[in-house]
Amino acid sequence: MPASLHERLAVRRADITTLHVDAIVNAANPSLLGGGGVDGAIHAAAGPELLAHCRTLGGCPTGEARITPGFALPARFVIHTVGPVWHGGHDDEDTMLGRCYRSSLALADAHGLRRVAIPAISTGVYGFPVERAARIAVTTVADELAARPALAHVLLVTFGDEATRVTEAALALRLAEA
Ligand code: APR
Q1: What is the CA radius of gyration of the chain?
Q2: 65 vs 22, 107, 161, CA distance in Å?
Q3: Which protein residues are within 6 Å of ligand 1, measured from CB?
Q4: Which of 18, 89, 90, 96 is the most exposed place for a label (fewest CB within 10 A)?
């Protein structure tokens, strides 16, 4: 009997760089050469080898994902994805945000990774509305978990009060449908 969505998807308020999971997802920019926010925190915690490795990757288009070792992080791998910049919602931002979650979980699955933690992609510097992003995250990850039975557990990692409240509400709504 496959584990239920309740057992495979959860919200966790945490600093993602502290999580002992197979992979943490980074909200990067197309250069993959680091930045602020969660990107800055991940590079700071992983150490300089991460940047050195990222330099060899040649960047990453919005909506796609690239995988690297975790280096000094407790996570074994980092999956770097590039979210859309919010321009008001008429520039295919919703679709591109969904692609980030799908690309990241496809890459994790392809590498046989089972426990993945994902931050609230695009909701910081990139300005995506938090509630809208949370709904997209929960819906997309739930669909990917249904399609990818080898993925054991996904944590939607939040970093503030509002993001946590909003993401927990979005997950509760989806679990009520399950
Ligand atoms: N752990 C978990 N979540 C975090 C952490 C952390 N240590 N630090 C920040 N966050 C959260 C933010 O609160 C926000 O909810 O990650 C979410 C994404 O925000 P950003 O990091 O600003 O990412 P994003 O909005 O996708 O913008 C990407 O910012 O840092 C640059 O190089 C990055 O240019 C890229 C852009």
Answers
A1: 15
A2: 16, 7, 28
A3: 15-17, 27-29, 35-41, 83, 119-126, 157, 159-160, 163
A4: 90
Give the pLDDT of residue 52.
98
* pLDDT, tens digit (0-9, with 9 covering 90-100), for 47-81: 999 999 999 999 999 999 999 999 999 999 999 99
CA of 3 to the centre of ligand 1 (A): 30
Atom of ligand 1 minimally distant from the CA of 36: 30
Which mutation among 33, 38, 125, 167 tests ligand 1's pocket best, with the greatest number of atoms within 8 A of CB?
A: 38
* 3-state DSSP assignment of residue 85: coil
**Active site (annotated) includes residue 94:** no
| Cα–Cα distance measured from residue 118 to residue 133, given in angstroms and rounded to the nearest whole number | 12
Please state, in angstroms and rounded to a whole number, the distance separating the CA atoms of residues 65 and 157: 18
CA of 44 to the centre of ligand 1 (A): 13
Mean pLDDT of 150-156: 98
Helix axes 130-147, 161-177, angle to 10 degrees: 40
Closest ligand 1 atom to residue 163 Cα is: 15
Beta bridge partners of residue 24, listed in sequence order: 78, 117
* Tokens matching residue 125: 């510097």
Whole-number Å distance between alpha carbons of 128 and 88: 9
